[in-house]
C-alpha cells in the first residue's frame, strides 16, 4: 500500500516536496489555504544549486529564465542622484538565473500536472486545524473554507511548507518566537508597470543609503520588479496606518528619480509584499512524522538570495532520502537534514554580510560598501578584458575544412 503524505502549502517548497515524494513512491496530497494559485511575484535569483535541483525534480524544461543580455546594465546612484556603473545581484559568483517567483511555481505546477505521471491532489481553501502525531500515522483535522466543513484524515507524513509564519511549525514545534530571529528590517517588493524613465528596458538600478535602499531588478522580457528595504527597531509600528505613506516617510530625503518613480508605482500596484525580515533557526526540522521544509524550517530571508534555491533543494533531497530509506522514515529524515543543514547554516551566516550590500546599517557602512563594490567591479572588468584579449580573433580561426585532404 502506498504511503500518503499531507503537504501544507502550494509554494516552491511544497510543490518541490510533492514531486520528490511522488518520485519516491509516495502519494502526496497538497492543501493550500488560498482559494487559487498565486501568479507573478518578485525577483528571484536562482543559484546553480537551485537549477540543479530543478533538473533533479524534472522541471528544468518548464523553467523560464529572464536574464538580461550580458547581465544587463547595472547603475548605482550616489547621494546626489548621479549614476555610475555598479554591480547587481546577477553579478555575484555563480551567475544566478533571473526569474520571477511565479516562474518557478509555474514550472513546478507543470511538473505536478504533466501527462504521463500520477496526478497530485490539490485542495484549495483548505488548512490544518490540528495535528495529532501518533506512532503509526498522523491524524490531521482539516478545515475547508469553501464549505465550512471540518474533517479528520490520516497520513503517514505531514510536510509543513507553509512559509515563514508556518502554522504547522507553531502547532507541532511551538510559538513563532521560539524560532524566528529578529533582523530589525522591513521589505516591500512588487512589480513595476514599466522601467524607470531614462533607463534601458533591461537595466537594474540601485540607490542605497544608510538604513534604507531601493533596488530595481531588470529582466529580459518584462518590466522590472522593485524592492524597498529599510532598517528599524520598531517592527510592530511599521504595520500601523497606510503602508505607502509609511514608505514615503521612511524614504523622505532620498529625492532621486528612481525612489520617486518606485513610490509612485507602489500607489498603483495591484499587489505587493510588505513584511518584516527574519530568519528561522531550529535544532531539528522534523518531529515524529512531521517535517518542515523551505522557509518554515530554515528561512534565510530575502537578503540571502538562497530562499528559492534551498526550497527546491529541500524537496528534491527529501525525495532522494525517502527512496534511500523506504521502510525507515526516521532514518530518511535524519539523513535528509544532515545533508542540507551545513549549507543552510553557511548561507544564514552570509546573509548578515549580504544585508549590508542591500541596505547598509550606517553612513560608515555605506562608504565601505561603495568601496568594496567599486573594487569588485574593477576586478570583474579586468578579468573580462583579459578574456577578450586572450580569445582567438575571427581571422585567426582555421576554417572547418582546413587540413582535410
Low-confidence stretches: 398-405
Mean pLDDT: 92
How many strands in all? 18
Shape: globular
Strand content: 15-25%
Number of contiguous helices: 10
What would you say this structure looks like, in words?
This protein is an alpha/beta fold. It is built from 10 helices and 18 strands. It has a 7-stranded mixed β-sheet, with helices on both faces. The longest helix is centred in the last third of the chain and has 30 residues, at 329-358.
Give the helix/strand layout.
Elements: E1 4-8, H1 12-23, E2 27-32, E3 43-46, H2 48-57, E4 74-77, E5 83-85, E6 97-100, H3 101-113, E7 121-124, E8 126-133, E9 138-144, E10 150-155, E11 157-160, H4 167-173, E12 180-191, E13 204-209, E14 212-217, E15 225-231, H5 243-250, H6 257-268, E16 273-280, E17 286-287, E18 290-292, H7 295-298, H8 307-324, H9 329-358, H10 363-390
Parallel strand pairs: 1-2, 1-11, 2-7, 4-13, 11-18
Antiparallel strand pairs: 3-6, 4-5, 8-9, 9-10, 12-15, 12-16, 13-14, 14-15, 17-18
Amino acid at each position: 500500500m502506498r504511503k500518503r503524505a499531507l503537504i501544507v502549502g502550494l509554494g516552491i517548497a511544497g510543490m518541490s516536496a510533492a514531486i520528490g515524494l511522488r518520485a519516491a513512491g509516495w502519494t502526496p496530497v497538497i492543501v493550500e489555504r488560498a482559494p487559487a494559485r498565486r501568479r507573478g511575484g518578485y525577483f528571484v535569483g536562482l543559484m546553480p544549486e537551485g537549477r540543479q535541483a530543478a533538473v533533479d525534480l524534472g522541471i528544468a524544461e518548464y523553467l523560464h529564465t529572464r536574464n538580461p543580455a550580458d547581465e544587463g546594465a547595472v547603475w548605482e546612484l550616489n547621494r546626489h542622484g548621479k549614476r555610475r556603473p555598479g554591480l547587481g545581484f546577477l553579478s555575484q559568483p555563480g551567475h544566478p538565473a533571473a526569474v520571477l517567483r511565479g516562474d518557478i511555481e509555474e514550472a513546478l505546477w507543470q511538473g505536478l500536472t504533466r501527462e504521463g505521471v500520477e496526478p497530485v491532489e490539490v485542495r484549495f481553501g483548505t488548512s490544518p486545524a490540528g495535528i495529532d502525531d501518533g506512532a503509526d500515522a498522523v491524524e490531521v483535522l482539516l478545515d475547508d473554507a469553501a464549505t465550512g466543513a471540518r474533517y479528520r484524515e490520516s497520513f503517514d507524513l505531514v510536510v509543513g511548507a507553509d512559509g515563514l509564519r508556518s502554522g504547522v511549525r507553531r502547532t507541532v514545534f511551538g510559538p513563532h518566537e521560539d524560532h524566528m530571529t529578529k533582523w530589525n528590517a522591513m521589505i516591500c517588493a512588487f512589480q513595476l508597470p514599466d522601467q524607470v524613465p531614462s533607463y534601458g528596458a533591461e537595466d537594474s538600478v540601485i540607490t542605497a543609503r544608510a538604513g534604507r535602499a531601493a533596488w530595481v531588478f531588470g529582466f529580459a522580457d518584462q518590466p522590472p520588479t522593485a524592492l524597498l528595504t529599510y532598517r528599524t527597531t520598531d517592527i510592530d509600528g511599521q504595520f500601523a496606518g497606510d503602508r505607502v505613506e509609511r514608505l514615503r516617510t521612511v524614504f523622505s530625503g532620498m529625492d532621486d528619480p528612481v525612489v520617486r518613480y518606485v513610490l509612485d508605482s507602489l500607489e498603483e500596484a495591484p499587489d505587493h509584499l510588505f513584511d518584516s525580515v527574519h530568519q528561522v533557526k531550529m535544532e531539528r526540522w522534523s518531529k515524529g512524522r512531521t517535517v518542515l521544509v523551505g522557509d518554515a524550517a530554515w528561512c534565510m530571508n530575502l537578503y540571502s538570495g538562497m530562499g528559492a534555491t534551498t526550497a527546491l533543494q529541500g524537496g528534491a533531497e527529501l525525495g532522494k532520502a525517502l527512496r534511500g530509506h523506504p521502510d525507515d522514515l526516521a532514518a530518511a529524515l535524519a539523513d535528509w537534514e544532515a545533508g542540507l543543514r551545513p549549507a543552510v547554516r553557511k548561507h544564514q551566516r552570509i546573509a548578515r554580510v549580504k544585508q549590508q550590500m542591500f541596505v547598509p546599517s550606517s553612513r560608515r557602512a555605506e562608504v565601505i560598501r561603495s568601496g568594496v563594490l567599486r573594487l569588485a567591479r574593477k576586478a570583474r572588468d579586468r578579468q573580462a578584458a583579459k578574456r577578450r584579449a586572450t580569445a582567438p580573433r575571427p581571422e585567426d580561426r582555421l576554417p572547418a575544412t582546413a587540413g582535410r585532404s
